Amino acid sequence: MEDEYVEEMVRRLENLSRGNEEASEIVRRSLGGLEVVHAQKGLLRCKFPIPNDVSDPDGNWHVGAIASLMDTLGVSAAYTSTGSS
């Protein structure tokens, strides 16, 4: 990770996934267990389990949790390129 913005964002995402970063409840619950596998300017590759508390009884992921994840990761990837969200 050659860039300070990349390092900062990886640190923040890891803190979010552990519940150590201030965020809304849906963001904290949606990102629980997230692991950044690869990070570079403009690109984040992550893996994570789908938390049971944001799934229905059939195991389907709640659409709000999907939207929250996509929004958080999209803004995070953009931040690694520009330093602003």
Describe, in plain words, how this protein is organized in 3D:
One of its GO terms (molecular function) is fatty acyl-CoA hydrolase activity. Keywords: Hydrolase. There is one protein chain. The protein has helices at 4-17, 25-30, 63-82; strands spanning 35-40, 43-47. With 85 residues, the protein is α+β, with helices and mostly antiparallel strands. It has one domain. The protein has a two-stranded antiparallel sheet. α1 runs antiparallel to α3.
Helix-strand pattern:
HHEEH
Radius of gyration, Cα only, in angstroms? Answer: 13 Å
Mean pLDDT: 87
| Poorly predicted spans | none
Short description:
By secondary structure, the chain is α+β, with helices and mostly antiparallel strands. The protein has helices at residues 4-17, 25-30, 63-82, and strands spanning 35-40, 43-47.
Task: Give the helices and strands, then pairings.
Elements: H1 4-17, H2 25-30, E1 35-40, E2 43-47, H3 63-82
Antiparallel strand pairs: 1-2
Helix pairs in contact: 1-3
Any descriptors?
alpha+beta, 13% strand, 85 residues, elongated, two-stranded antiparallel ribbon
